[in-house]
Amino acid sequence: MTKIYGHRGSKGNYPENSMLAFKKAIEAGVDGMEFDIHMTKDGELVVIHDATLDRTTTGTGYVKDYTLEEIRKFSIGAKFIEFRHYDPSWDDEIVPTLTEVLLLCKAHDLEVNIELKTYEVAYPGIEEAMLQVVTKTGYDPEKVVYSAFHLPTILRVKKLDPQAKIAWLLENFIPMPTDYIETFGLEALHMDKNIVLKMPAYWQPIADKLRIWTVNDEEEMKQLIEMGVAAIITDYPEIAGHLKG
What we know:
Blueprint: E1 3-7, H1 19-27, E2 32-39, E3 45-47, H2 68-71, H3 98-107, E4 111-116, H4 126-137, E5 144-148, H5 151-160, E6 165-170, H6 177-184, E7 188-192, H7 193-198, H8 200-203, E8 210-213, H9 218-227, E9 231-234, H10 237-244
Parallel strand pairs: 1-2, 1-9, 2-4, 4-5, 5-6, 6-7, 7-8, 8-9
Antiparallel strand pairs: 2-3
């Protein structure tokens, strides 16, 4: 059965990658959560999408140039004042740590997809640091998948922990996908929806190895659920959850 993952929480209606957005996704009944990590100047792992603070926070510059304490002084809710549900309390939302998000998801027995954002900033040692955090939280390894666009990143994760479940993020077509899955020991491919929906018959044989992003259109959700893909990752988990029944 196709699972529903909240994309950076309930990103469509709440500040992305905020504890508020994650809680709202949980209220919507998600099976899993997708979120992104970067590393601070002092080696802490924070949950934020961009390598820079400018778009989603009241700060500016690169995450890597700030300590955790410094980053936590910025709001990640104030930039979303145009959202329909905006409330002044959002201004108090701060960048969460990987530990905080994992503990919240663990309390609700969710699967988690940790995306390592390493294609702009390398973050030496981020893979080992991330695995240590996951282990320290006591998260069930069967419920964690590590993904990245940068293939060497997830291969390093696999080398550090041969039991780790890794997935390659793709926004371009690849031939013979099963060969990639077997050669690199991938648990799944995380595919741009447009690639799969353009050629559904091509991808159907490995539908159970696909998690599809970012699916916000109701008809596309229905098509992918009918295909039997492993999961759809959506900004609007409440819609996807309703379709799933």
